[in-house]
Amino acid sequence: VTHDEVADLLPAYALGGLDEDTVPIDEHLRGCRECSELLATYLEASAALGEAVPPVAPPASLRAAVFAHAERRYPEGRGWAWGRWLWQRSSLVAAGILLVLSAGLGLGNAVQQRQLDQSQSTLALDERGLALLTSTETTVDRMSPLNPSPTNAHGHWYHRGGIQTQVFVVEFMPTPPAGEAYYGWLELRDGLWQPVGRFTLDSTGYGRIILLGGDGSNARGVTVTRQSGPSAIPSGTIVLRGPSA
Amino acid sequence: MSSTNAVNFRVGGGSGLTNEQVQGDSREAEARADVALVRRLARGDRAALGELYDRHATRAYSLACRLVGPTVAMDVVHDAFVVLIDKPQTFDPTRGSFRAWFLTSIHHRCLNVRRAQRPTQSDDVLAEHASGETDLADTVVARLRDRTVRDALLGLGHDQREVLVLAYYGGLTQSALAARLGVPLGTVKARMRRGLLGLRAALRGENDEVREERA
Description:
In chain A, 42% of the residues lie in helices and 23% in strands. By secondary structure, chain A is an alpha+beta fold. Chain B contains twelve helices and no strands. In chain B, helix 7 packs across helix 9 (158-168) and helix 10 packs across helix 11. Chains A and B meet through helix 1, helix 3, helix 4 and helix 7 of A and helix 3, helix 4, helix 5, helix 8 and helix 9 of B.
């Protein structure tokens, strides 16, 4: 394609409205400063359209998957400090890590990148959750039921400034009705809600979620809801809230 | 009168800066910080990734949710970050800000998904108006959260607003737009170009300057 043809197509390129293959345009852009600057002008406007939609907080699992990929890509990053610390001090943790790694490596030959990222994510969550729980500097906020609970249902939110890990624990939770489950939410200081995830309960009503990324300083509280499925903001019934007064 | 003088006259003293200029300065500082973060990421600094994620993930995920729904949005945003992590050099600062580049990456990925999975399922507004009612663009604009962008769009002519909205949020290509609107392809291209430039000028407050200069 010629320079003039590319320049003619750049508005549609910025809006995602091209009928043509973008590869020749991308190739031209790499060598043409004039077209690159013209495209930057159009992209400034089209990006504003993208920013104008109502905000939706991404789920914690997205952050975990992204960071798991980064850990594999940059294995010597500072984030491994906690992992090395645990490795040197706990044979039990080391065995667990080996098991997860083995599973991850075994899968790695047969599955797609995203599945491997998920395995790495599990490993990273386990490491960092344990590190947080064993720190004497960790803050523990209690979550209490809004209504009296015959089962003594309650929860705890573990977080520490500067440590990009949070742990959410619920205990003695009654079995939810069929089709419903318990979900955790961070209530952020800017008014948005960040999904924490779904609690998987054992037979005693205990469940935990380890959230990688974020130290909790941007949140003013935690809420646990009972609802029929995941959602962008809390729905269903609020059952726990914290920190308790 | 230069545009700078016009701006100072309009504000009437003080800092001599319009809100749009203050926002513009902030945007430029943000853009410079993003470039620095991408360079750090390219050197393997994962803390830089954390900052980039915190600054851009919500915008990216919000747009993807709007275009393809939350389930596919997860994959789209994840894949975009994977490309950023693996090939940070694909971001070229000469083509604009990281914010615009990353959102464009998300937008193009979403449109690719939608075009492969017609009819669309996530865009209720466009689905409701599949018959092609004339106020479709205005209906979509009215549902936008950002008032500045909404007002800027409403300040454009309807023809320009229509092609921007149908292309960006509806995923219609130039030729599809020409067929839908019953106008030549060249007309669609011209409306896109003028619409984008008009939107950019409005967001920068340049339209007000022009009006005041004329007054």
